Amino acid sequence: MSKRNLNKYLVLDADHCSGCRICELICSMVKFGEYNPQKSHIKLIRNREMDVNLVAIDCHCDFCATCARWCPNDALAVVDTQAAALIRKQNKIGKFPAPLIKSDLPVTE
Fold first, then answer.
1. Cβ atoms 27, 103 nearer than 8 A
2. Per the domain annotation, does 87 fall within a domain?
3. 4-42, pLDDT tens digit by residue?
4. Helix, strand or coil, per DSSP, at residue 52
5. Its pTM surpasses 0.85
6. Which backbone phi and psi does 101 adopt, to 5 degrees?
């Protein structure tokens, strides 16, 4: 069973996210063996009205950082608790820890 690392956070820099969805594809391939964004533990949410991309992560995410390593624009990073708190305190608009969401996906091993 995949274990959630309680000391890690995925941080998105929305100013650098192009909306390519490579993060979704690579996550589903690593965790489920197929390119299927519906099975990904990371979800890209596009807000067309505000012209911004946001990400949310499934509560089953183990913060392996594969999505961040494959991001062509370095828009994602996995950081520890202290770095996430500092980012939140600095309150730069567009850069923040991704929220957790609950899904019906099975837990990966």
1. no
2. yes
3. 567 898 988 888 999 999 999 999 999 999 999 999 999
4. strand
5. no
6. -125, 160
Q: State the total domains in the chain.
A: 1
Which residue is it, tokens 């990400």? 55
Give me the CATH number covering residue 54: 3.30.70
- Cα separation, 62 vs 103, in Å, equals 14
Residue keyed to tokens 């979704």: 24
Exposure of 48 in the CB half-sphere (CA atoms within 13 A):
0
The number of residues in the chain equals 109
Show the domain range for 48.
8-101
Residue with tokens 């980012």: 87
| 51 and 95 Cβ atoms separated by less than 8 Å | no
- CA dist., res. 85 & res. 42, Å (int): 21
Taking the C-alpha atoms of residue 92 and residue 20, their distance in angstroms, rounded to an integer, is 23
Distance CA 60, CA 1 (A): 10
**Chain center to CA of 103:** 14
